[in-house]
Amino acid sequence: MNESVSNKKRRTIAAIYVITFMAAFALSSGLFSNAMPRIIEGYELTFDQASLFSIFQSAGMILATALTVLVVDRLDKNKALGLMFLLMGGFLVCIGMAPPFVLLLVALFLLGTVSGVLDNACAAYISDLFGDERAKYISILHAFFGLGSVLGPVFIGTLFKMGFEWNTAYTTFGLVVVFLALAYFVTMAVIKRPEPAVSGVDEAGVRVKIPYKKIVTSPQMLVLCGMAIFSAATQVFNTWLPTYLNNKDALLYPVSFCSTIMACYSVGMIISRVLNGAILRALSPRKYIITMTFLGALVLGAGLAIDQKLLWPVVSFLLGLLIGAIYTVQIIMACSYFPQFSATAISYAGLASSIGGMLFNALAGQLAQRVSFLSAMCIPVAGMVGTFLLMGLTRRVGSHTEAAGE
């Protein structure tokens, strides 16, 4: 072990890299919704064909959840994170090559897989590094996810204005990610990995057996997974809103303006996640989710009903402000239920979220193609109402655990 660098400093350096990984993951995710109108046009796709993109990515995230459940709590998360980040960069470059449609779907599936493992492992590793202070640092981690979400639309929107095509954004950013991954491995080799505050080994140094059945059958986790499925409906807003507006009136809603709308959502998300730690000291996680989903459904419902160009940036910002930290709260709740097996607990909730995302995005594509695009955009409203009702009707489940975890 490198004694010249204290464990506290090593932990800080590792956390900075993990935060960078999370921001980069968010930026890469933010590229897709803004690129989708150009992709649909370039590949001459119908809306139900375009929904396959989100379905394949969600399927990759489901596989990622299985991998996380089975192996991440058994591995050195420090090394696993670096490997997943390196692979993410490679798959971004592959997508940037604009391959044939079928190969593009395969690349998105693989990107979804490594990104899903990265997403779960980032939060789990931060939870391990900082132990009882996890709520504070996971909120910081996810605030930087919000920052990455802002930069994604800005980055690809700027490239569009400069005359580049959508795939240039993927190639360029993929190469940056590969460079950062290599820098991470070099840094960890020099300073050595930090010792976490929480680990999956007992006092004798023997790895503790993961209680999979206890975790998955826990009443708290069952409710949390149900909530994750419903709240995944909000992914339809992030994935489809630029296409919805651009398809309705390309002159009124050019792709660059749609990128601005999504950037407004991400700004709201950042503020939400920065404030999240302080708010959870006053509200339980359950009350937070109940309040924010109720208000979020009202805001998006009003936006869809009024449907004015100048109102959409405001609606998007408010929606990000209200629901932008719900996924963070979901992670905090999972870690507080099973802190010694954080990656496994996060993965079960992540699996539910991926299944919900896949189903709701598939439904959105079908509704947009066969009924109306407006009906597809009502899915996030319905999902927030479902989350509100579920969390409100199951208040007694896990209330003691949640209060203890604040």
From TrEMBL:
* Name of the featured protein: MFS transporter
For this protein's source organism, the top of the classification is: Bacteria, Bacillati, Bacillota, Clostridia, Eubacteriales
Q: Transmembrane ranges?
A: 12-32, 52-73, 80-98, 138-160, 172-191, 221-241, 253-276, 288-306, 312-338, 345-365, 371-393
Q: Which UniProt keywords apply?
A: Membrane, Transmembrane, Transmembrane helix, Transport
InterPro entries recorded: MFS, MFS_dom, MFS_trans_sf, MFS_Transporter
Tell me the domain of life: Bacteria
Q: In the UniProt record, does the keyword Iron-sulfur occur?
A: no
What is the similarity comment for this entry?
A: Belongs to the major facilitator superfamily.
The UniProt entry lists membrane topology as: Multi-pass membrane protein
- Please name the Pfam families in this protein's record: MFS_1
SUPFAM superfamilies given for it?
A: MFS general substrate transporter (SSF103473)
Q: Where does it mainly reside? A: membrane
Give the species: Bittarella massiliensis
